[in-house]
Amino acid sequence: MPVSNTMWVEKYRPLKISDLVNQKEVVGSISSLLTNVTEMPHLLFSGSAGVGKTTLAMCISREILGDNWRNYTLELNASDERGINMVRERVKKFSRFAGLDANIPFKIIILDEADEMTSDAQTALRRIIEDTAKHCRFILIANNISKIIEPIQSRCAVFKFTRISEKEIITHLKEIAKKEKLKADDDGLKAIFDYSEGDLRHAINIMQAAASLGNITEESVKGAAGLTKTKDVDEVLKMSLAGKIIDARNKMIELIKVYGMSESDFLKYLNEAIYKSKVVNLVEISEAIAKYDYRILSGANPEIQLSALLAELSKFGK
C-alpha cells in the first residue's frame, strides 16, 4: 500500500489537551490552570524528546486563542538561533504590545529547546518576560531543565514530562495502523517501542518508514530504523582506530542524518562492535563510550560529543 507523503507525526498530532498520550498529571494541572486563563503563569516544560511537550504547548495556544491562534503565537526553536540577537530581534519584536482583539487575553511565545540558549540570551529573555507579562505569556520547552537559569525557572510554573509507557505507545501505534489500513504484528510494534525508547515522535517516524517497506513486522522495523546499517558502525570503529577521524565522522553523520539511526542506537552498536573486535583497551574504550553517552543524556550537543568520542578512540588504535 502506498504511504502518504504527509508526516504522520503531524497528521496524528493531538489538537486538544485531553488527547495527549500518557501525561495525565500534567494535563490535569494545565486544565485546572486554564479555568482562569487571565491568571495563567509562564510555563516551563521539561522532559526527554518525543513525550508531548511541544504538542501540549500548541494545544494550549489553540485553546486560549481560538481560530486566530497562529496570528498571536510565535514558535521558535531556540537551538537554531541560540544567541542574544534572536531574543532581541524576534522575541522582543513579537512581544511588543500592538493591540489585541477583545477575545485575545495575551500573545503566546513558545520557545522550543530553550535549554540550548546561551546564558546571555537567557538573561535578556528574563527581562522581556518581566516587561511583557501583562500582554504576553511564554511557554519554554527544555530537555535539560538544569541548563535554564534560575531567574527564568522561578518565573514559570514548571511541569516535568515522563517517558511514555510501552502500553501507551503501542496502543497509539495500533490506532494509527488502523486508520492507515496497515497490518502490524505484535513483534513489529514491540520492536518499534524498543528502538524508540519512550519517544513517541520517533516511534511514529519509524512506523511510517517501516510502512513504506510493507507490513509492520520486526524485519521491516529494523530496516526502517537504520538497523540494517549496523555493519557500517563496525566500519566507523575500524576507521577511528586507524586514525581516519574525518572518514569515521562522515560515516557516523551519514548513519544518523541520512539513515535515521539515533545517537543512542549508534552508541549501542558501537559498544557491541568494540566487544566483537576484541580490542586490547576494552575497559578504557567502554569508559569513554559511557562518558560521552552521559554527556549526551545530560544535554550536550550529540554531534559534537560523538565526534569527540571518535577522536578519542583513535588513541587506542596506535
The radius of gyration over CA amounts to 22 Å
Structural class: alpha/beta
Low-pLDDT regions: none
The CATH topology of the largest domain turns out to be Rossmann fold
The name of the CATH superfamily of the largest domain reads P-loop containing nucleotide triphosphate hydrolases
Task: Report the span from N to C terminus.
Answer: 51 Å
Can you characterise this structure?
- The chain is α/β, with parallel strands linked by helices and 318 residues long.
- It has three domains: 23-160, P-loop containing nucleotide triphosphate hydrolases (Rossmann fold); 166-225, Helicase, Ruva Protein, domain 3 (Orthogonal Bundle); 229-317, Zinc Finger, Delta Prime, domain 3 (Up-down Bundle).
- It has 15 helices and five strands.
- The chain has helices spanning 8-11, 24-33, 53-65, 84-95, 119-131, 150-153, 166-179, 186-196, 200-211, 218-224, 230-241, 245-258, 263-277, 282-297, 302-313; strands spanning 42-46, 73-77, 107-112, 136-142, 156-160.
- Strands 2-3-4-1-5 form a five-stranded parallel beta sheet, with helices on both faces.
- Helix 5 (119-131) links the parallel strand 3 and strand 4.
- Helix 11 packs across helix 13.
- The radius of gyration is 22 Å and the shape is globular.
- The mean pLDDT is 88.
Structure keywords:
single chain, 318 residues, Helicase, Ruva Protein, domain 3, Zinc Finger, Delta Prime, domain 3, 5 strands, 53% helix
